[in-house]
Amino acid sequence: MDKKILATIELAEHEVRLIVGQFYNGRLNILKVEKVAHHGIKDFKIVDTQSVRQAIIKSVSNASENIGGEISRVLVCMPSVDLTLKSRIHTMSINQVVSESDLKAAYDQFTKETILDDQVLINVNFTKFHINGITTRKVPLYEKCNTLTFEADCYYINRDVAFDYLKVIESTGLEVIDIVLDDLGFAKEAALFEQSINQPIIGVTLERAYTKLSLFVKGQLTTNIYTDYSVQALFDRFYDVYDFNDDIIERLVYYNLDVSNVSPSNDPVFAWNTKSKEHVLSQKDILDFVGNDIIQLL
Predict the structure, then answer these.
(1) Is residue 2 over pLDDT 70?
(2) How far apart are CA 235 and CA 252, in angstroms?
């Protein structure tokens, strides 16, 4: 049976994130997640190349050792900074049936205009196909027709950000096999394209340095907004009161805080010891501690 291993890397503002998964029988199993802190990125600008490089090298080394194999090629998850959407249409003649080469030819046509002012094309997403008088979202592979019209969304982002991120990744010796915008990856994982066909959906990304709101309308990622409001204030409160490290705070905030829960549990979700006594926190404790901050943030 075919087993294919894929590594994806993301350069966040405070850490490098590396996820290694294995495709097996059509399913993706996560093998390893690595997070290595750095202080080399600020406002999507690389201010300390060496710090970011060392974090990348360490994350790859740790993951390679864990899975018992060398990671040399990665998929890059790129931040959707200064996102611009260009919707385009292309019609082409088909020789009896739609083939994979036809799809590739259409894709190549959409990717001809790679530079747009100070932006660069990152992803092309086919949205609709017009075939034999019918409009469909399903790829009409092997369908019979004479002509086929493609509709596609072309997503551009800040060119300097894209080039600088790729440059530092490739400087470590890694080969970049492909790039995906974080908003598009987020949407695919959460099925936001399908959900937004009938009603608009706003995806919220809570990062330490910013909060991002991404708008999906009628199956499209239309725009996003970065704000200075972030969960860093919540982290600071946990630092000051409990002296927790980042890993513990992330687990409590991202996995145990639910502001929509009107009856949070009093059962302990985290316990620790000090010299004086044993301490515990429940979902209710966490909600009481920082719940209002999250609500105000959103």
Answers:
(1) no
(2) 10
Check residue 3 and give its pLDDT. Answer: 60
Q: How many CB atoms lie within 10 A of CB 216?
A: 25
Domain carrying residue 258: 232-297
The encoded tokens of residue 274 equal 């000090």
The count of structural domains within the chain is 4
Confidence class for position 1, pLDDT limits 50, 70, 90: very low
pTM score = 0.88
Instruction: Let me know whether 94 and 147 are in one domain.
Output: yes
- Which residues lie across from 227 on neighbouring strands? 211
Least Cα distance to 76 among 160, 182, 204 occurs for 182
177 and 195 belong to one structural domain: no
3-state DSSP assignment of residue 141: coil
CB of 42 within 8 A of CB of 104? no
Residues 67 and 164 in one domain: yes
What does the alpha-carbon distance between residue 107 and residue 189 come to, in Å, rounded to a whole number?
23
Write out the DSSP string of 259-278: TT-SS---SEEEEEE-SS-E
pLDDT tens track for 194-225: 999 999 999 999 898 899 999 999 999 999 99
DSSP class of 69: S
Q: Which H or E run includes 146?
A: none
- pLDDT at residue 285, as a whole number: 94
Across 82-93, average pLDDT: 96
